[in-house]
């Protein structure tokens, strides 16, 4: 299959203005706000669509069967206070692939908070930049369910970064079916980046909050039934974002980037501080272990948003991910009241490896590469199994024009050698988190990168969005297919791949 050539000619100004009118159906109130996360590729769309037989440039592989889902912020109402992208209502976008064809759907995640605002006809949440209002909600702000998404127990699970209530979303029509209830669990809160083990179907999740226990860790079986949940001993409130999962262990994160509870209680603002003198602590717990079985390993100070993979190798437990040495970069002149938000969103991180010796307690850690990348994904069939490859987003630093969080290219890593391959999306073109899509019928016994990498991009010159499909073995030749989206797809957070055999279990013989 031949890759598409890189587009080097761009439309005229007149063509661009025409395409804006055709594709940029945003909320009109954004023009009253001087906030970069409400404009351009970040601007919300106002239309929910269901469109089949999308136009395809190139050729979609016949063994690409399943769906790419991506969650992200899409505010419906004008913000009550200063807007932060974490405040935007969750919106799910889905691109479905079958027999060389593609279709598209998008729907809001119908959270309780969003429905309350629809009844009121306005935004009622104070937003992440505060002040928090705990009479409004148990979180002090709106649980937007705009962060993560994965397929579990026959449905999509939509999650919020701040350990909110998980929502069940129908993977076929993207309709919200209420809270995602785990049988036998008496509470609902769950963090984004909980994990589903594709080999066992188990859900491994964690929860955190401002009151003891500051963290819990649990496991549910493939049918949504709770197996166990245990309290994890932490010295105070933390904001962990991800975990590492191997076949027999889970790695929990205690990170030195957290808020002052006295300030939050007295003034209603969550002020984050990076404590450079406090090491990262990783808590290794057996998958079905008790809280008392956690072993803590200390590492260099920093912050971790996303892990790539984790596996056992003899007496070592290895975890790959992205590490930030400074999760709160300096603000820049002229950024005004948005300075702290803009600085926090300017993500500075690089590909990194940690290894823990489960016999001696020794720790080894170090860079895999120093390029500024994040939003890292791997082949889901290799979860918990030793693998080599990860697929990251290239993020420009501030001096490279990275004033806001934006993805300018796809980077494939060989984490064993540190070698990287890169495809730049092009001037003014910005991407989404990419997922690895195994070929139909693939297993973990097949070559690790013999599949596809899929992402969504938007061109700021005409606001046209495309879904790009790459051959994972050679991303440098560019996408083998480019699917034209029927509307602009705004910037978002996380994505997942659902295999056709999981989406349509009763039709596996047809796929």
TrEMBL record:
The UniProt entry, under InterPro entries, shows: Carotenoid_Oase (IPR004294)
GO molecular function terms attached to this record: carotenoid dioxygenase activity; metal ion binding
Cofactor note as given: Binds 1 Fe(2+) ion per subunit.
What Pfam families does this protein's entry cite?
Answer: RPE65
Q: Name residues in a coiled coil.
A: none
Q: Which domain of life is it from?
A: Bacteria
Cofactor(s) the protein requires to work: Fe(2+)
GO BP annotations listed: carotene catabolic process
Keyword annotations for this protein, in alphabetical order, are: Dioxygenase, Iron, Metal-binding, Oxidoreductase
Residues binding Fe cation are 193, 241, 306, 494
> Is Metal-binding found in the keyword set?
yes
Q: According to its UniProt record, which protein family does this protein belong to?
A: Belongs to the carotenoid oxygenase family.
Protein known as = Dioxygenase
């Amino acid at each position: 299959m031949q890759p598409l050539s890189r587009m080097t000619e761009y439309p005229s100004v007149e063509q661009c203005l025409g395409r804006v009118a055709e594709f940029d159906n945003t909320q009109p109130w954004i023009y009253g706000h001087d906030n970069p996360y409400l404009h351009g590729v970040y601007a919300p769309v106002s239309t929910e669509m269901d469109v089949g037989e999308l136009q395809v440039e190139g050729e979609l592989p016949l063994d690409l069967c399943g769906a790419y889902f991506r969650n992200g912020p899409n505010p419906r109402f004008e913000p009550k206070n200063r807007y932060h992208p974490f405040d935007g209502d969750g919106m799910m976008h889905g691109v479905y692939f079958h027999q060389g064809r593609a279709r598209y759907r998008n729907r809001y995640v119908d959270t309780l908070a969003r429905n309350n605002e629809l009844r009121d006809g306005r935004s009622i949440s104070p937003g992440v930049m505060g002040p928090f209002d705990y009479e409004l909600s148990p979180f002090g702000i709106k649980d937007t369910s705009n962060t993560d998404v994965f397929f579990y127990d026959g449905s999509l699970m939509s999650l919020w970064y701040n350990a909110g209530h998980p929502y069940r979303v129908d993977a076929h029509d993207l309709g919200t079916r209420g809270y995602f209830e785990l049988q036998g669990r008496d509470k609902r809160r769950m963090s984004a980046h909980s994990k589903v083990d594709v080999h066992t179907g188990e859900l491994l999740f964690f929860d955190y909050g401002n009151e003891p226990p500051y963290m819990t860790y649990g496991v549910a079986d493939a049918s949504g039934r709770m197996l166990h949940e245990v309290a994890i001993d932490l010295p105070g409130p933390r904001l962990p974002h991800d975990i590492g999962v191997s076949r027999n262990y889970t790695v929990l994160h205690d990170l030195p980037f957290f808020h002052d509870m006295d300030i939050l209680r007295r003034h209603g603002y969550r002020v984050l501080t990076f404590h450079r003198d406090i090491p990262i602590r990783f808590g290794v717990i057996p998958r079905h272990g008790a809280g008392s079985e956690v072993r803590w390993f200390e590492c260099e100070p920093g912050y971790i948003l996303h892990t790539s993979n984790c596996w056992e190798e003899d007496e070592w437990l290895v975890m790959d991910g992205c590490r930030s040495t400074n999760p709160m970069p300096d603000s820049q002149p002229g950024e005004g009241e948005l300075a702290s938000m803009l600085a926090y969103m300017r993500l500075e991180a690089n590909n990194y490896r940690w290894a823990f010796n489960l016999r001696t307690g020794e720790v080894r850690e170090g860079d895999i590469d120093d390029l500024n990348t994040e939003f890292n994904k791997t082949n889901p069939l290799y979860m918990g199994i030793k693998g080599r490859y990860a697929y990251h987003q290239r993020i420009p630093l501030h001096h490279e024009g990275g004033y806001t969080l934006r993805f300018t290219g796809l980077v494939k890593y060989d984490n064993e050698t540190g070698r990287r391959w890169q495809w730049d999306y092009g001037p003014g073109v910005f991407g989404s988190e990419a997922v690895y899509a195994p070929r139909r019928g693939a297993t973990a016994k097949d070559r690790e990168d013999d599949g596809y990498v899929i992402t969504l991009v938007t061109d700021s010159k005409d606001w046209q969005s495309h879904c790009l499909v790459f051959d994972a073995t050679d991303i440098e030749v560019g996408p083998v297919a480019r699917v034209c989206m029927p509307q602009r797809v705004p910037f978002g957070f996380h994505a997942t791949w659902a295999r056709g055999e999981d989406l349509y279990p009763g039709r596996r013989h047809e796929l």
